[in-house]
Amino acid sequence: MRPTTSCPPLFPFLHFHGFSRRTFLHDGYVISYTSRILLNQCKIMRVSRYSNVPPGATKLLTARSKRGILNARSLNTTPLPTATGISHDKQKKGGVNQYVPPQTGLVAILPHSWIPYAELIRLDKPAGTYYLFFPCAFSTLLAATMTPAVSMLQVLGTTGLFFSGALIMRGAGCAINDLWDRNLDPHVERTKFRPIARGAISPGKAVIFTGTQLLAGLGILLQFPSQCLWYGIPSLLLVGSYPLAKRVTYYPQAVLGLTFSWGAIMGFPALGIELVTHPNALMATAALYSSCVSWTVLYDMIYAHMDIKDDITAGIKSIALRHEHNTKTVLSGLAVVQVALLAAAGLAAGAGPIFFVGSCGSAALTLGIMIRRVKLKSTQSCWWWFKNGCLLTGGGISMGMLFEYLAHIHEDYGTDDRKVSHKTINLDQQIESIE
């Protein structure tokens, strides 16, 4: 690569727009060390074909290093041929050493000052919200099968409130996690550009923002029946414990499971079923909650494999490290436990064949496919299955429960035992409302 003393004839527009004479040409790249227009920063552009550049073109190409993209500002309507940034080449060679803001999706269109807070609550990564929401949906639909007198509108409204709560509380949990890990995240490739780790949000501002989210979550909780408040508050004790667990045990995913699965308890009181006075509902809740805990440990074990090398360096513990060499055996065991406990929840709730075929069958099928196909050594494969597995497994279980509920309200199941059970629960609810 040789320096030129002036812009070559093929690039008169560079000189026209004030590029300095310290310009290098090599393999289709134009590298300017100094530029009156580009504020003395090293800029790299690539033009696909020299011959396609029209002489005297009045288009200024600027490579914006902070965003890793090229913007084209034109003085006329004639477009210049392809020009692309090379930030992706840098990523392929040795990782990213500079923060790149989101270029697509909802976060990309937000005001610049909002982006760090949107990233803090993982607004651009909704999989965590889905994982927190599905246990709530499971318990609501399963409770609805035990109280078919509950209207479809009430079930939908309750589910919508749970989704709003999951969105808010998942964001609060992520912020708490990042506050705990602010000194560890800079040493992990995947987390080093999180807002607190890179200094975009101070710990003090993050605490205030988290407090605001917790108050919003409390506001959602107060929309449910009063007994839900007493069932929901204990979950706050678990929210802050997961980051601490990563420092003291190889099984922090178990703590995460206890936290993320709490919604499996909430659906029953949300529809007016008092767990203390209804043994069948209590057994169904316990089995469903345990099933969701197994599911959480399963999918987060796959997720933890993405950071396994950095976790060793940073001193972070995880179940993926503890069982690195027999992960799929552990995953298979967790899947069996999850499906078995899900079936037990259905039995306690008096569910019919639609539940066992739809919910339990789809869970077994999707979990089996995921465990077989996921490549634990591949970050991309682990992320794909983590991101999409929630929709495959969670969606299948939810659809099975929904059709089971529809069968109950249309009285497709007519056994005397179920009718007596439903009448008993409905009578107890009426007595409680009178009292």
Automatic annotation (TrEMBL):
<keyword id="KW-0999">Mitochondrion inner membrane</keyword>
<keyword id="KW-1133">Transmembrane helix</keyword>
<keyword id="KW-0496">Mitochondrion</keyword>
<dbReference type="Pfam" id="PF01040">
    <property type="entry name" value="UbiA"/>
</dbReference>
<feature type="transmembrane region" description="Helical">
    <location>
        <begin position="281"/>
        <end position="299"/>
    </location>
</feature>
<keyword id="KW-0472">Membrane</keyword>
<comment type="similarity">
    <text>Belongs to the UbiA prenyltransferase family.</text>
</comment>
<keyword id="KW-0812">Transmembrane</keyword>
<dbReference type="InterPro" id="IPR030470">
    <property type="entry name" value="UbiA_prenylTrfase_CS"/>
</dbReference>
<dbReference type="GO" id="GO:0016114">
    <property type="term" value="P:terpenoid biosynthetic process"/>
</dbReference>
<dbReference type="GO" id="GO:0006744">
    <property type="term" value="P:ubiquinone biosynthetic process"/>
</dbReference>
<keyword id="KW-0831">Ubiquinone biosynthesis</keyword>
<keyword id="KW-0414">Isoprene biosynthesis</keyword>
<dbReference type="InterPro" id="IPR044878">
    <property type="entry name" value="UbiA_sf"/>
</dbReference>
<protein>
    <recommendedName>
        <fullName>4-hydroxybenzoate polyprenyltransferase, mitochondrial</fullName>
        <ecNumber>2.5.1.39</ecNumber>
    </recommendedName>
</protein>
<feature type="transmembrane region" description="Helical">
    <location>
        <begin position="254"/>
        <end position="275"/>
    </location>
</feature>
<feature type="transmembrane region" description="Helical">
    <location>
        <begin position="228"/>
        <end position="245"/>
    </location>
</feature>
<dbReference type="GO" id="GO:0008412">
    <property type="term" value="F:4-hydroxybenzoate polyprenyltransferase activity"/>
</dbReference>
<feature type="transmembrane region" description="Helical">
    <location>
        <begin position="330"/>
        <end position="348"/>
    </location>
</feature>
<dbReference type="GO" id="GO:0005743">
    <property type="term" value="C:mitochondrial inner membrane"/>
</dbReference>
<keyword id="KW-0808">Transferase</keyword>
<dbReference type="InterPro" id="IPR006370">
    <property type="entry name" value="HB_polyprenyltransferase-like"/>
</dbReference>
<comment type="pathway">
    <text>Cofactor biosynthesis; ubiquinone biosynthesis.</text>
</comment>
<feature type="transmembrane region" description="Helical">
    <location>
        <begin position="354"/>
        <end position="371"/>
    </location>
</feature>
<dbReference type="InterPro" id="IPR000537">
    <property type="entry name" value="UbiA_prenyltransferase"/>
</dbReference>
<comment type="function">
    <text>Catalyzes the prenylation of para-hydroxybenzoate (PHB) with an all-trans polyprenyl group. Mediates the second step in the final reaction sequence of coenzyme Q (CoQ) biosynthesis, which is the condensation of the polyisoprenoid side chain with PHB, generating the first membrane-bound Q intermediate.</text>
</comment>
<comment type="pathway">
    <text>Secondary metabolite biosynthesis; terpenoid biosynthesis.</text>
</comment>
<feature type="transmembrane region" description="Helical">
    <location>
        <begin position="130"/>
        <end position="155"/>
    </location>
</feature>
<dbReference type="InterPro" id="IPR039653">
    <property type="entry name" value="Prenyltransferase"/>
</dbReference>
